[in-house]
Specification:
The complex is a heterodimer of chains A (358) and B (394).
Chain A lengths: L8 H11 L5 E5 L3 H10 L6 H12 L8 E6 L1 H4 L9 H7 L3 E5 L4 E3 L7 E3 L5 H10 L4 E8 L8 H20 L3 E8 L7 H21 L8 E2 L15 H15 L6 E4 L6 H13 L7 E6 L1 H11 L6 H20 L24
Parallel strand pairs in A: 1-2, 1-10, 2-3, 3-6, 6-7, 7-8, 9-10
Antiparallel strand pairs in A: 4-5
Helix pairs in contact in A: 6-7, 7-8, 8-9, 9-10, 10-11, 10-12, 11-12
Chain B lengths: L1 H9 L42 H11 L5 E5 L3 H10 L6 H12 L8 E6 L1 H4 L9 H7 L3 E5 L4 E3 L7 E3 L5 H11 L3 E8 L7 H20 L3 E8 L7 H21 L8 E2 L16 H15 L12 H10 L11 E2 L1 H11 L6 H19 L10 H4 L10
Parallel strand pairs in B: 1-2, 1-9, 2-3, 3-6, 6-7, 7-8
Antiparallel strand pairs in B: 4-5
Helix pairs in contact in B: 7-8, 8-9, 9-10, 10-11, 11-13, 12-13
Classes of the chains: A alpha/beta (358), B alpha/beta (394).
Chain lengths: 358, 394
């Protein structure tokens, strides 16, 4: 076998394939302490450990929600947290047939000599940390690389740096039993059109798979988390069918069939937009040897957060909102979503924040 | 397949038992065709393939139609000479013309053959009846293709490896070939496992292919992308697999860098098999499994592709088409289609019909393999013989 034969090879392939189960997807609940603080403050809730725990418990314990999820990405703190009754979150998830995942990167830093382009840190002791997370129950990992579109961006340097960073991280994960989610996010910020986004996405993904191959990463044990191909945030919107066509075409041109699933990031799209776009992709006829699913953070939690407002008495309402979005996205992976059944407050609201920093 | 044709061309036309290796037929450079169907392709294709974009996609789809494959008949004059010599004929233009006329006029050939690769002379030739070869092909519903490389030469600084020439003036040549009626092109570069392959040789092969592909598309020809991994060597199937993965990673990356439009190319990868001198042989199922794994790991589903090889590969091709996969896997044969036909003809006009019959029989067998329905029943002994020749030079 030309890729590195990790002792976890079979398990990695199995877990990666499981995450791509039709009808399921990933809840990205790995907001760092700082970032979750922003979310909480938007509903006037204090950023302390209890509140952070309460929010996640609300999500993971929503009755009937876990059936629509194959994985949940956690922040380190959450991996070791328990419900108010003392049950470890990883157990809650596992019992619900959901694989726990863990964010392992340590954020982005600027690349000197570029126009604000970044690379992602987190390699120091990454192997050790992955091994530790595996022991704690994690079975997949996530590392977010960020690129932007501008007159001279993304530069060759930024593409290369981020692609090889992702490949290095992926290789280390596989050595330690974690399925790496490869996430080269191309920010939606800008006034470019969908063609530009497509061209950049194709270039970036080609570089990523070159790097992964150079690093002997076993593609069957990886997942891809790309942006959808859309016009820039300052450009006129287009129909979900158009986004679906451009996105699937970009993937057909770059993602080998060995990759079992592609789990899209929502990147600031509204809850409803993200679902409609995913749905359109799964309705599209054509060659799609990978599952097309979701790995949404904001696009799964926005209306839930608003409904909750930090108040215990809103628990049911909040969970209902979460269930609605989870089910909607599950249907979208099957191409059967009928649209805006019951839009919670904020479901149609754009979640785009310019130059968003995690 | 062209690579099959390469190996086929190398071997002496008269098959004898000494060419068998361990009494088994050896798979010659099988390669696979891959096709992508994209019925909703947006017409606003960005930076790729320029003005011929739609036509390239259409041509590629036509060549990769179900149940059909490519007839490689692009032997250079020298090589064709060897063919003719094997049946006692002089290497004259008239004889080459007569032989090619026989091939392209086989009645109903277009049922099994979607494309025919020609040598430059043939592209500009007429049949013995005075019709243009390309017109006969088009009437048969066969797309004319053209070999555009200028052969392999030693790669300086490498470990005795080769590289493929032909980029000089390629733009004007491909434009002229398009004018003449060609709609796809072929360029054969090779990688040798016993010699490494060195990183240099792999890069050169991949980059050359990418440049050729970009230039071809720019001039309306669908490029067949063919990095042949030579069968020569004692290495096992795992080593072939390793090298194939590396080569294809480079090829696809450079194709992307050169902005080649993937929906408008044909791929011709070698099947993953053990080296010809390897003691451990592989079953068709194993070959199919390894080859499909290679395709799944390295080939984006957008590809159209074409090209396989050999009778043995008919079994492998058939095996591959039993498993679900996102591509259209087909054949591109030279020797495996032409061998019996040539012998039957023997240069005599009275044998033309019979010779054409044998061509159709082989074409039919491969057509069935493309559909996963080949059973091997009724195959002649001749057809089952191996065609590997050690150290074959194109």
């Amino acid at each position: 076998m030309s890729c590195s034969k990790s002792k976890y090879a079979e398990e990695l392939a199995k877990n990666a394939a499981y995450i791509g189960t039709p009808g399921k997807g990933i809840l990205a609940a790995d907001e760092s302490t700082g970032t979750i603080g922003k979310r909480l403050s938007s509903i006037n809730v204090e950023n302390n450990e209890t509140n952070r725990r309460d929010l996640r418990e609300l999500l993971f314990c929503t009755p009937g929600a876990l059936q629509y999820l194959s994985g949940v990405i956690l922040f380190e703190e959450t991996l070791y947290q328990k419900t108010a009754d003392g049950k470890p979150f990883v157990d809650v998830l596992k019992e619900g047939g959901v694989l726990p995942g863990i964010k392992v990167d340590k954020g982005t830093v600027e690349l000197a000599g570029t126009n604000g382009e970044t690379t992602t840190q987190g390699f120091d002791d990454l192997g050790k940390r992955c091994a530790k997370y595996y022991e704690a129950g994690a079975r997949f990992a996530k590392w977010r690389a960020v690129l932007k579109i501008g007159p001279n961006e993304p530069s060759e340097l930024a593409i290369h740096e981020n692609a090889y960073g992702l490949a290095r991280y992926a290789s280390i994960c596989q050595e330690n039993g974690l399925v790496p989610i490869v996430e080269p996010e191309i920010l939606v910020d800008g006034s470019h059109d969908i063609n530009k986004c497509a061209a950049v996405t194709e270039r970036v993904l080609a570089a990523c798979y070159k790097a992964l191959n150079d690093h002997h990463v076993m593609l069957e044990g990886t997942l891809l988390k790309p942006n959808m191909v859309t016009p820039g945030s300052d450009s006129p919107k287009v129909a979900p069918e158009v986004i679906a066509e451009y996105t699937v075409r970009a993937l057909q041109r770059t993602v080998p069939a060995a990759v079992p699933a592609i789990v899209f990031l929502s990147g600031g799209q509204s809850e409803e937009e993200a679902t409609l776009n995913l749905n359109a992709m799964n309705k599209l006829k054509g060659k799609k040897p990978w599952s097309l699913s979701f790995s949404f953070g904001r696009a799964l939690q926005q209306s839930t957060l608003k409904a909750w407002g930090g108040k215990k008495e809103n628990l049911q309402k909040a969970q209902a909102a979460f269930l609605t979005r989870a089910k909607a996205n599950s249907e979208a992976t099957l191409g059967t979503y009928k649209g805006a059944a019951k839009l919670g407050e904020g479901a149609a609201e754009s979640l785009h924040v310019k130059d968003y920093k995690y | 397949m062209a690579s099959a044709s390469a190996s086929l061309l190398k071997s002496s036309p008269v098959l004898d038992k000494s060419e068998w290796v361990k009494g088994q037929t050896i798979i010659r450079q099988p390669s696979v065709s891959v096709v992508r169907c994209h019925p909703n392709a947006p017409s606003a294709l960005t930076i790729r393939a320029g003005s011929y974009a739609d036509e390239l996609v259409k041509t590629a789809k036509t060549v990769a139609s179900p149940g059909r494959g490519i007839l490689a008949m692009d032997e250079s004059n020298a090589t064709c000479g060897k063919r003719l010599a094997s049946i006692g004929l002089e290497n004259t233009e008239a004889n080459r013309q007569a032989y090619r006329t026989l091939l392209v006029s086989a009645p109903g050939l277009g049922k099994y053959i979607s494309g025919a690769i020609l040598f430059e002379e043939t592209l500009y030739q007429s049949t013995t009846d005075g019709k243009k070869m390309v017109d006969v092909l088009v009437e048969q519903n066969i797309v004319p293709g053209i070999k555009v490389d200028k052969g392999l030469v030693p790669l300086a600084g490498s470990n005795d490896e080769s590289w493929c020439q032909g980029l000089d003036g390629l733009a004007s040549r491909t434009a002229a070939y398009y004018q003449q009626g060609a709609r796809f092109a072929k360029w054969r570069t090779v990688v040798s496992i016993p010699n490494g392959p060195s990183a240099l040789a792999v890069k050169e092969a991949a980059w050359g292919l990418a440049r050729y592909a970009a230039i071809s598309q720019d001039n309306g020809l669908v490029p067949i992308v063919e990095p042949e991994i030579l069968l020569d060597g004692e290495h096992g199937i795992d080593r072939t697999f390793e090298v194939a993965q590396k080569v294809w990673a480079e090829v696809f990356f450079y194709l992307a860098e050169n902005n080649v439009m993937f929906e408008g190319i044909l791929l011709k990868p070698s099947m993953v098999t053990p080296g010809a001198e390897c003691k451990e042989r592989a079953t068709p199922q194993q070959v199919a499994d390894y080859t499909l794994k290679l395709l799944k790991r390295r080939i984006p589903p957008a590809f159209l592709s074409g090209g396989q090889s050999e009778v043995e590969a008919t079994l492998n091709l058939n095996a591959m088409n039993q498993a679900p996969h996102p591509w259209h896997v087909s054949f591109s044969y030279a020797r495996a289609l032409q061998n019996t036909c040539l012998k039957t003809w023997g240069g005599r006009p009275e044998n033309v019909k019979a010779a054409q019959e044998t061509l159709l029989v082989r074409a039919n067998a491969n057509s069935l393999a493309q559909l996963g329905k080949y059973t091997g029943e009724g195959e002649s002994e001749e057809a089952k013989k191996g065609m590997f020749v050690k150290g074959y030079v194109y």
